[in-house]
TrEMBL record:
It holds the Pfam family AnmK. Residues 301-322 are annotated as: Disordered. This is Anhydro-N-acetylmuramic acid kinase.
């Protein structure tokens, strides 16, 4: 099945799209072949309207209704372009995260989450069924609706049970840094906010009169903060590697300083080196979640204290399908155990140790 994943950040700068060819084998191994990714700019006027509606702004329901339609139309146009640009006109499904407008939290617990982008408009423009509203079911089950990426991390980077491999940390470096500690496949994962990502470096670059020493100082502070956070959450035996993705993976100065502060025996690896484009991980995540959703497979990873990594009481199938029938595929009877990227280096695909990663 070929799935187009759509993602848009809080900055509302671009719509990230990725095309994934996904094939679930009888042994529970899900093979993902990245077909390509692209970034489509939001129209400036619509971007300004979305940003003006973000909290703490006060907007009426008429504007919310209009934005839901306009965002849906733009996501649909991006999906249509991605079908042609990335999948050669051949795609089965679109998975859209939408544009987050509000996350309702009371006493530290999520009560609701609102992503705009009418799925009906996306389906109409893309001429494909759409999986959308990917966080609400997790919130209803007691979760925070995040981090959803932990499922991708554990299926992709988890070790085979009993292999003796040390854990891996998946580190996302966008404006802020977030981390997932991954052990064996099926074991609980630990997720946390790891400090600033690219924010300090970006601010230093944009300051009038800032010199190379200012950028290096910002990178040093960022790296030290993240390294300390990783050390605080690492098990006694340490971690084998830190796999980075996001915008920060392209920053040579940030990667250099982070590598310098990791403990001996811990390597720093870009997601690209393992076959997943660093700057498109989130879009591929939503393609994965869309695939799992239409197959009836839960979209969250196990976490501590018999909860999911999101805090939910139980694993749930994520997303709603538009149109509601017919389902593109039958439900899956075999648990999904592992994610294998067809673009991973051959050594990782063929060696006993690599195949477990």
């Amino acid at each position: 099945m070929i799935v187009i994943g759509l993602s848009s950040s809080a900055a509302v700068d671009v719509i990230d799209a990725a095309a994934a060819d996904l094939d679930l084998r009888a042994d529970g191994t899900l093979h993902l072949r990245p077909l390509g990714h692209a970034a489509y700019a939001w129209p400036d006027m619509l971007r300004r309207r979305v940003l003006a509606a973000l909290p703490p702004a006060s907007v009426d329901m008429g504007e919310v209704c209009a934005l839901d339609t306009l965002v849906g139309q733009e996501l649909g146009a991006a999906a249509r372009r991605a079908v042609d640009d990335l999948a050669g006109g051949d795609a089965d499904l679109v998975a859209s995260h939408g544009q987050t407008l509000h996350h309702w939290v009371v006493g530290g617990r999520a009560r609701g989450t609102l992503q705009l982008g009418s799925a009906a408009w996306i389906a109409e423009r893309a001429r494909r069924p759409v999986v959308s509203d990917l966080r609400a079911a997790d919130v209803a089950a007691g979760g925070q609706g995040a981090p959803l990426v932990s499922l991708l991390d554990v299926l992709w980077l988890g070790a085979e049970p009993g292999s003796g491999a040390r854990p891996t940390v998946a580190l996302t470096l966008d404006a802020d840094a977030s981390a997932t500690l991954v052990g064996a496949v099926g074991d609980p994962v630990l997720t946390w906010d790891a400090g600033p990502g690219t924010r300090l470096v970006d601010d230093a670059v944009q300051q009038p009169g800032a010199g190379p020493e200012d950028v290096e100082a910002a990178a040093e502070l960022t790296a030290v903060t993240i390294a300390r956070s990783l050390a605080a959450h690492a098990p006694a035996g340490g971690v084998e590697r830190v796999v980075i993705s996001g915008a920060g993976a392209r920053s040579l100065v940030l990667r250099d300083r982070l590598a310098a502060h990791l403990p001996p025996g811990t390597s720093l690896v870009a997601a690209d080196e393992l076959g997943l484009p660093s700057d498109a991980k989130e879009a591929y995540l939503f393609a994965l979640l869309g695939f799992l959703g239409v197959h009836g497979v839960p979209g969250t990873a196990p976490g501590p204290q018999r909860r999911q990594a999101t805090g939910a009481r139980r694993p749930v199938v994520l997303g709603s399908l538009t149109p509601p029938t017919p389902l593109p595929v039958p439900a899956v009877r075999t648990p999904v155990r592992r994610l294998v990227l067809s673009t991973a280096p051959q050594a990782l695909l063929t060696s006993p140790r690599g195949s477990q990663r």
